[in-house]
Design a protein that fits this description.
Elements lengths: L6 E4 L7 E4 L7 E2 L9 E6 L4 E5 L4 E5 L4 E5 L1 E3 L1 H12 L18 E3 L4 E6 L4 E5 L2 E5 L5 E4 L10 E6 L6 E5 L2 E5 L7 E3 L8 E8 L5 E7 L2 E5 L7 E2 L9 E7 L2 E6 L4 E4 L7 E2 L11 E3 L6 E6 L3 E6 L5
Parallel strand pairs: 8-13
Antiparallel strand pairs: 1-2, 2-3, 4-5, 5-6, 6-7, 8-9, 10-11, 11-12, 12-13, 14-15, 15-16, 16-17, 18-19, 19-20, 20-21, 22-23, 23-24, 24-25, 26-27, 27-28
Length: 314
């Protein structure tokens, strides 16, 4: 967030599959060793360095001092038991009382949870896992269960958090659940039935502190401007089709479609137009940007990596 010129890319069928840039894409250098890309689930830019979620569970952290990747994270308390029982043995074990994040106690174990998503506030990091929402208050060293209301083992697909940690947004198999008091209380929200279920959540904040929620669903993109109480499909110019990825740049939203093509909105998702040109007709598995940036990096499935710069709606 504080170094927008740093970008990491994973290439397919390349001698050096993991590359990084510190100057906004002008020059690139290999970033390794230690990370096997065939077992990679997703990469994250944490406040301290790069982190990777693995397909078979667990996390790895890039150590810039040693220029290598290493396994990272310890599960503590009930998280140690829940991650072990599901991802290693597949058997149920007796659960322990749920610890609070500020009072985590042994037992400890290497983090084995299948991590679907990571999110970072100033004081607390969150991990969305199949065994529940995990939280760390020591920059990823230890992770414990963070209860979502009365539930401690709710499978979580996606998590977002505001910089101050007050607002937490979670997508689970049972719907969307939000907290606006740092997890003390939670409220449930659902997309319309025709959405087919939410897959991922993105949050756009304006200068007044208001949030626009952008939910990628099985049947399209849905937006809420009232904290999730009501949702509208982004249908004005955007196809009712699965969205591959979304990047939010102030009032400008960019969406890549699974069917191909890039669509842009200059009014926070109210209206959309398709970006014209041969390049924009392709498939882009990832579009990403730094907060408050005017450049979006679009990773093409066949044509390499591109920087899309937005100066004005014209």
């Amino acid at each position: 967030r504080d170094r927008p010129g740093r970008v990491l890319a994973v290439l397919t069928n390349a001698p050096e599959p993991v590359l990084a840039t510190a100057d906004g894409g002008r020059t690139w250098a290999p970033l390794g060793p230690g990370l096997k890309t065939e077992g990679l689930r997703r990469l994250y830019s944490a406040p301290d360095t790069w982190w990777a979620a693995l397909e078979r569970g667990g996390l790895m952290r890039y150590d810039s001092a040693k220029s290598a990747w290493f396994p990272a994270g310890k599960a503590v308390g009930e998280a140690a038991s829940s991650g072990y029982k599901k991802n290693v043995r597949g058997k149920s074990k007796s659960s322990r009382p749920t610890p609070t994040v500020s009072g985590l106690q042994p037992p400890t174990a290497n983090l084995r949870h299948l991590v679907n998503d990571l999110a970072f506030s100033r004081d607390t990091w969150f991990a969305a896992t199949e065994n529940g929402l995990l939280a760390s208050t020591d920059a990823g060293t230890t992770w414990g269960i963070f209860p979502v209301g009365p539930m401690t083992n709710l499978p979580v697909r996606s998590v977002r958090v505001s910089a101050d940690g007050r607002h937490i947004w979670v997508i689970s198999l049972r719907g969307l659940v939000f907290s606006h008091d740092a997890g003390k209380t939670w409220s449930w929200h659902d997309l319309p039935l025709e959405a087919g279920g939410a897959l991922r959540l993105d949050v756009a904040s304006d200068s007044a502190g208001a949030h626009t929620l952008v939910a990628s669903a099985r049947n399209g993109l849905y937006l809420s401007r009232d904290a999730g109480r009501t949702w509208q499909q982004a249908a004005s110019g955007l196809p009712s089709a699965p969205v591959q990825d979304v990047a939010l740049v102030g009032d400008t939203f960019l969406a890549s479609m699974q069917t191909g093509g890039l669509f842009i909105s200059y009014d926070r998702g109210r209206t959309w137009v398709r970006i014209e040109g041969t390049l924009a007709e392709g498939h882009f598995p990832v579009v990403t940007t730094a907060e408050h940036s005017s450049i979006v990096f679009a990773a093409s499935a066949t044509e390499g990596l591109y920087a899309v710069e937005f100066r004005s709606p014209a």
